[in-house]
Q: What sequence folds into this?
């Protein structure tokens, strides 16, 4: 099977838009959670969240050229991140008129909920007013789940697969594993892979109604997301996009591409909502099976994992997640790998979370650092049964050694995804 590497990344996130801004915030442990006046006006219990500020993106002109300036935020985020990843990989944007589709390059981009803002802001009001004939064809185009990938395909001229997936909070990791497998089996040389999730109060309202969001930090939003902490009181919703260029190693080497990390393996499964699992909680056996099979697929032993990028959402599930890792790896206390949660800074970017977190992981491997989990001064006592406090970095851990990193994502519906990244060696 083909070896697959990451040669480009693009990111739109609450802590920074663009690779440089994102990396700087990552290392500094800077929160991107803000108070959102609209949520206060709408009487939300949780009035904070992570919304990217993409207004200064240098790629907005390209979207304007393709009449996407007023597209849904889901599409805008994904296209901006996709264009950045493409250029970051040292590739060029072809001329729309003279170029032919590239049969070796495909797209695998998902979303948890799609362009909900197009439905709520444009289509529903017109239908309710009896003016549905004023619905534009562009509204339908943007409402489709494959819209982001389709628009990017048009901009970048990709001619291989153009597919979209939706698997709740596991969406981004699943999209990347799907792209990885497509290249691995020789069906493409390059896949643009990741996920995107726009901001919509109508989407976030469902989590607020479930009472799973943080409600105690509306006046101090940067402290609201507290994975693995005793004082964690719920998730903080967020939006954004993470797109990666996955590439066959031979092709990457031939064009002298810079390589962030290699994808060693991955696995997808579900717990079928049995044995403690439900639509909103994972079946522990399903989680353990997913991680075990990912390690096997990557041909990596448990003792080789240096760091874990957890799903860790600042809910009661954090304890179970750490416990599952301890049981799978058979490693405890000081022998436990380092573990962190990007959601402590970004909040939970829902369908885009896995992709953005994999980008953070690829940067960690490339530059050999571990970013901090902020707001975790008081680690949950149940977590301390399995892990020493030093294994949850509170500050940037620079100049460290990461050869293998495991990233997990767990989604509503009891879906699981685990991907194993490794430091690239020829």
A:
């Amino acid at each position: 099977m083909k070896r697959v590497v990451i040669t480009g990344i693009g990111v739109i996130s609450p802590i920074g838009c663009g690779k440089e801004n994102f990396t700087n915030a990552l290392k500094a442990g800077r929160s991107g959670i803000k108070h959102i006046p609209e949520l206060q006006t709408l009487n939300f219990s949780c009035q904070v969240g992570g919304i990217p500020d993409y207004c200064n993106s240098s790629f907005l002109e390209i979207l304007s050229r393709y009449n996407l300036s007023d597209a849904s935020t889901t599409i805008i985020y994904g296209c901006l991140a996709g264009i950045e990843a493409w250029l970051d990989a040292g590739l060029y944007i072809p001329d729309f008129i003279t170029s032919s589709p590239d049969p070796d390059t495909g797209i695998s981009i998902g979303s948890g909920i799609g362009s909900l803002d197009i439905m709520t802001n444009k289509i529903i009001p017109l239908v309710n007013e009896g003016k549905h004939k004023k619905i534009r064809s562009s509204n339908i185009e943007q409402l489709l789940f494959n819209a982001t990938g389709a628009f990017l395909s048009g901009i970048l001229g990709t001619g291989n697969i153009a597919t979209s997936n939706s698997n709740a909070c596991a969406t981004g990791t699943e999209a990347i594993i799907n792209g990885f497998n497509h290249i691995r089996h020789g069906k493409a040389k390059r896949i643009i892979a990741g996920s995107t999730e726009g901001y919509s109060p109508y989407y976030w309202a469902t989590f607020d109604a479930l009472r799973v969001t943080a409600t105690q930090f509306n006046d101090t939003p940067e402290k609201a997301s507290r994975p693995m902490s005793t004082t964690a009181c719920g998730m903080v919703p967020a939006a954004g996009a993470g797109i990666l260029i996955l590439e066959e190693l031979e092709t990457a080497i031939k064009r002298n591409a810079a390589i962030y990390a290699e994808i060693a393996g991955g696995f997808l499964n579900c717990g079928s909502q049995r044995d403690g699992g439900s639509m909103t909680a994972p079946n522990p056996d399903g989680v353990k099976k997913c991680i075990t099979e990912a390690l096997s697929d990557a041909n990596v032993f448990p003792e080789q994992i240096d760091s874990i990028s957890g799903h860790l959402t600042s809910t009661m599930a954090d304890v179970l997640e750490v416990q599952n890792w301890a049981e799978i790896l058979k490693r405890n206390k000081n022998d436990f790998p380092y573990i962190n949660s990007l959601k402590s800074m970004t909040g939970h970017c829902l369908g885009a979370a896995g992709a953005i977190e994999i980008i953070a992981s690829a940067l960690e491997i490339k530059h050999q650092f571990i970013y901090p989990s902020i707001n975790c001064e008081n680690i949950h006592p149940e977590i301390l049964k399995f892990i020493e406090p030093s294994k949850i970095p509170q500050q940037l851990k620079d100049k460290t050694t990461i050869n293998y990193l495991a990233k997990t994502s767990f989604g509503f519906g009891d879906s699981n995804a685990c991907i194993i990244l490794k430091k690239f060696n020829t």
